[in-house]
Design goal:
182 residues; mainly beta; Jelly Rolls; 2 helices; 5% helix; 40% strand
Amino acid sequence: MQFIPTAIPEVLSIEPRVFQDDRGFFLETYQAQKYAAAGIAQPMVQDNHSGSRQGVLRGLHYQIHNPQGKLVRVVAGEIFDVAVDLRRSSPTFGQWVGVTLSAKNHRQLWIPAGFAHGFYTVSEWAEIVYKVTDYYDPKSERTVMWNDPQIGIRWPLRDGVPPLLSPKDAQGLPLAKADSFD
């Protein structure tokens, strides 16, 4: 596996080694010792599986208490996956990084605690599987506005059509008003 720092070094793009032949393929999607050697040593306590149709944007989500690190991968389709640094003491506070994850490229994205996470479904359908380092805590869940001009995420919106949002995501706060981390 290759653990590749992104423009925000704590966020890692992970490229597993894929063994492929005429029967299909095999790859390791998680191996605790290899991840720990790359600096991802927190225990993973929960797996989540999400399905979304094309044009759906989920996020930008985070938990202000019990923050979660997330290890994200796609098992069907393609997404544009985004992490936004919400650590005020960080030199990259308010900056974002985006990576295309797909069932074809088998990439994963490691998003440490202290970041907001969101994704946009590029393909007709996508299924995302992700591990988290802490349990879901609905009382501390927060949402940053997906299109906050201060952050300036360049989402690959299909034909410029606005994304499909949940009511909660449509009410996301701008970074300037959102709870953040020290």
